[in-house]
Amino acid sequence: MTTRLTGAPVQRTEDRRLLTGAGRFVDDVQVGPQTLHAAVLRSPHAHARIVDIDVDAVLDLEGVHLVWTHEDLAGVSAPLAEPLPLLIPHPALTHGRTQHALARDEVNHVGEAVAFVVADDRYVAEDAVARIRVTWEVLEPVVGLEQARAGERLVHDDVPGNVGARLEQGTADAEQMAAALEAAPHRLALDLEVERSACTPLEGRGTVARWDPDSDRLQVWTSTQTSTGVRAAVAARLGLDLGQVDVITPDVGGGFGVKINHPWPEELLVPAAARVLGRVVKFTEDRREHFVSSAHERGQLQHVEVGFDDEGRLLALDVEFWHDHGAYTPYGLIVPIITSTQLLGPYKPQLYRVVFESLYTNTTMVTPYRGAGRPQGCYAMERTMDAIAAHLGRDRTEVRAANFIQPDEFPYDQGLVFQDGRELEYDSGDYPALLEKAKALVGWDEFETFRAEMAAEGRRVGIGLACYVEGTGVGPYEGAHVHVETSGKVKVATGLTTQGQGHQTVFAQLVADELGCRFEDVEVVTGDTRRMPYAVGTFASRAAVMSGSAIHLAAKRTKEKALRIAADALEADEADLEIVEGSVRVKGSPGSAIDLGTVAVLSNPLRYAFDEASKAATQFSVGDPGRPPVAEDDEPGLEGKDFYSPERATFASGIHAVVVETDPDTAEVTILKYAVVHDCGTLVNPMIVEGQIHGGVAQGVAGALFERMAYDESGQLLNASFMDFLMPYVTEVPDGIDIDHQETPSPLNPLGIKGAGEAGVIPSAAVFAAAIEDAEGIRVTRMPMSPSDLFHLRTDQRQEPTS
Predict the structure, then answer these.
(1) In Å, how far are 408, 417, 544, 681 from 345, measured between CA atoms?
(2) Angle between helices 764-776 and 374-392 (to 10 degrees)
(3) Mean pLDDT across the stretch 293-322?
(4) Please, what are the domains in the chain?
(5) Of 123, 117, 118, nearest to 36 (Cα)?
(6) What is the pTM of this model?
């Protein structure tokens, strides 16, 4: 029998092409001679009214083909002049606001698009942008959550108090919570802060578009996480039929959430310009543009009140937080909703209440970034657990164990509504087992001996751990198409995009296992609306759960059809057939077999014998002449299409633990050991899962110890380049990460899988805060923690106890 590939560490098929420079990213797209290039004039002010825009100095500049301001957009297409879509409305988002493709009357953050130029090359386009003169009425900006909460200045005149949304949910109302807190044997209050950060993918945003007047079709290549979403937006805003627009996502040099927002202004302006000019138009943003005009995440202020008993069990948990969503809310409330619901992690408080306000500031807008609100929630919960343990003088792992949902309690309903509008019901897990694995992996029980040894050498070390639960595989659906060609090759298409996750490898493993073909014969295409026009996108650790399940189901359909056709050709019962290494054969009689390629020929009975293979499927050679070659309930071709739509999300889980050393003089934090135990259900490819964990940990280390978005009081981003933005090198990321897996299959999908893409980053702020606090003996309530932050924290709290 063929070796089963699911669960095997199959080498990634994509890597050779990408590592040898053969990748094809948006900036590599060449679709015709004389491509024109676009540049964007961006606001230098965080908050200002546009009094006048003078483009006269650009109109006669040699090499310039087009100059647009907002006033020009309605003449191109009326919907193009409207505000960009609010992608995910929510009843609590009472004051949702989105930007225009080009600013209309006012700008609300540095970097907002104001004018658009297309020229012979990028150099001319940039020169032209520099000649545009804007008369501004500069307004006082709102920078940071404290100013936003004060409400003395407004980002949008029609949004009172800068409050875009307020949402409350839980298992207790305010009165019940107050009574429970008052009655609890122990009570604590914590004020916490997570600063703003952002993803910095190798490839920024980019779009190329070509209009074909002969076919009235628009082709768009864009670096996105949702090709079908961009397709729908472009069609709607340019007044085209959906069938007139093709969106192709080539290789993507990192997404991490910033490319799930759609459409970006350039994804509309570039196709519109290509249609108007009849030329290929390209836009590739530079690094500063990405810092100031894409999206950020993370920034929150949090207030936690908790009541608990002598064992540390949560009797009442009351959380209020304020979320900085920047100048606009195109992605709705997804981030703070995830924070408010995923905060609970693997625990079961008797009562829980959470209230958040999502506030406008004159800074770059906030959309999901890897982790998408979960790191903030994990930080609040795990800092609370550590505070409870310190207050009671108990081991931190004991307090967590006392609050775990137990394996026999699944499915477990937390009594909340998740980001997908469904109940927050955990499907499976074993959190006590995770904890035991994590303790063993990091050496938790032996750490005090190690601490004493280090102290004898004058070295200061600390240990921390953090638990999390991650909602993955959110709907509404994904689809797949599996097609066996007459050559025996298997072509697979799914609509979500890929940004380096190894989809081509993992999906080929699933098809090879289910269909019985050779792994080498499977070719996977993602993110091309010509191949799969219906899809949602790649985000929320959903690719394996959603597209993996759809591909499995489509391969199953294809297999069933192959067996039906082969049974007729071999004069055998379907139940007696199997497919091994691309050959359909009678079980126990390998000599009686037919290749999948031949089955594909038989599935499509042609009139014409145009090659040797097709001679087996002409009108005089197919099957029983007494019945039609294609059954009434079938169609030609050896292929299958299916869609997977889950009833709710699956919930992965895990625990991270870290041992750090803090330098007594420089306050630098050195990672001595990093351990991860993760449960993503059935492992399709453990090597790829571990790669995802490594990448997530690297981003988590960055967000916990190095990266932050530093705004001044005027709303200027002070570190909008890699000269100033402190991104860690490989020397700052753990050299070795100890990883252990646990598999509690999900009952919600046919493969039993859960997502793994964001897990590596979720507990990072919490686990480093815990370890630094343990090493220093001082409270850590604000992350990230740079050496200068730790130095000042020592000065401020040197004598303050941690309990």
Answers:
(1) 17, 14, 22, 17
(2) 30
(3) 97
(4) 17-23+34-139+205-284 (3.90.1170.50), 300-474+647-797 (3.30.365.10), 475-644 (3.30.365.10)
(5) 118
(6) 0.94
